[in-house]
Amino acid sequence: MKRAFFAALVACSVAVAGDAGAETTAEDGQGAHGAASPVVVELFTSQGCSACPPADALLAEIAPRRDIIALSLHVDYWDYLGWSDIFAQSAFTDRQRGYARIAGERAVFTPQMIVAGATILPDVTPAVLEGAIAAAAAHPAAPVRLQVRRQGEALHVALSAEAGPLPDGTVVQLVRYLPNVRVDIPQGENAGRSFDYSNVVIAWNALGAWDGQGPRAFDVALKGPEPAVVIVQAARETPDGPLPGPILAAARVD
Which region is the signal sequence (predicted)? Predict the structure, then answer.
């Protein structure tokens, strides 16, 4: 478990990006122009899990909301059941196990939702989810100002902390995802069924550490049409190393 958190942050090559197009899309995170940061909802799921389709559908329902950043992370530990999830990554399994370790849980399961990097839902239902989202929005983890701007294949990220230093191990992360994709599943527990998935994460990379003691900026080459999310997340230190902690801010660019 020592590398569970950072193993999920696949090494990312950060390059200075020039102007690659005329179109600009911008969205502000917490503190920018008084706007609250969207609440990040992570769903750990699998195409090989017969219990997951209702949770996948719930994520699809909330995905269009602008007060939420809903992300679907496909894990690989059910691949042995007859169907290998085409979006599964071991890094996402490691990330889920990191959350479980923090919560004192000995096992992971699907479907599972985690809100704001801090609240593991006891059940994936609309009522439980809405309550957790409301609580996270009412009590943000830290006053972080996060601004992102995309122009063509260039992404600019600007950060500042409005209340001094951040927790040790805070990492700025870049997520890419597929907004909508339909998958036919010929084998396994869901054999013969087709599903529409929303906000399927295909990459989750670390841009760099940030202590919050001064402004920080990243200029990243952002290739491909997929939307991006920038997440600022604290780490929780354990005897075995850092594990994922509360999400301090997040912003999305389409």
Answer: 1-22
Q: Which residue has the tokens 């890419």?
A: 176
In whole angstroms, give the CA distance from residue 23 to residue 12: 25
CB-neighbour burial class of residue 54 (10 A; exposed 0-12, middle 13-18, buried 19+):
exposed
Per-residue pLDDT in tens (0 to 9) along the chain, 254 residues: 334 444 445 433 333 333 333 333 334 454 333 457 899 999 999 999 999 999 999 999 999 999 999 999 999 999 999 999 999 999 999 999 999 999 999 999 999 999 999 999 989 999 999 999 999 999 887 789 999 999 999 999 999 987 778 888 899 999 999 999 999 999 999 999 999 999 999 999 999 999 999 999 999 999 999 999 999 999 988 887 889 999 999 999 98
Look at the chain and count its residues. Answer: 254
The residue behind tokens 């196990």 is 97
Domain span holding position 124: 4-253
* Residue with token string 């679907």: 72
Q: Is 12 exposed, middle or buried (0-12, 13-18, 19+ CB in 10 A)?
A: middle
DSSP 2: T
Q: What is the pTM of this model?
A: 0.88
Spatial CA neighbour of 30 closest among 174, 171, 146, 156: 146
d(CA 148, CA 159): 9
* Total domains in the fold of the chain: 1
